[in-house]
Amino acid sequence: MHRFPFSRFEPMRLKGIRPGGWLQEFLEHQATGLTGNVEVSAYPYGTEFWGSQEDDLEGSYGTWWPYEQTAYWIDGALKCGYLIGDKELYNKAVSEVDFAIEHADENGFIGPEDRKSVV
Questions:
Q1: What is the distance between the alpha carbons of residues 102 and 100, in angstroms, rounded to a whole number?
Q2: What digits encode the pLDDT tens for the residues 18-39?
């Protein structure tokens, strides 16, 4: 990765990071806390994510924010699981990504039908 001449930090790939100390402890708390147990939390996290069946879609699922919010969880869970070597957490997040990719429409669009007209 290229370093910016004015920066004090350099971009790093995730695989180049190995947490230790307080960061390792923090990530382990995340994995055993809400990040690792998101299914017990409130809407939209307590429901299926991208893998929902049409009859599961209730309330405000017709809007964009449940998908955005669950994408934040997926991003964080993937990184947390990878960094601490928690395969269960990592695979939980990867399964959501895999489902979304496997269910792209014929034009490659990924997401709820009602969002097609917005992109």
A1: 6
A2: 999 999 999 999 999 999 998 8
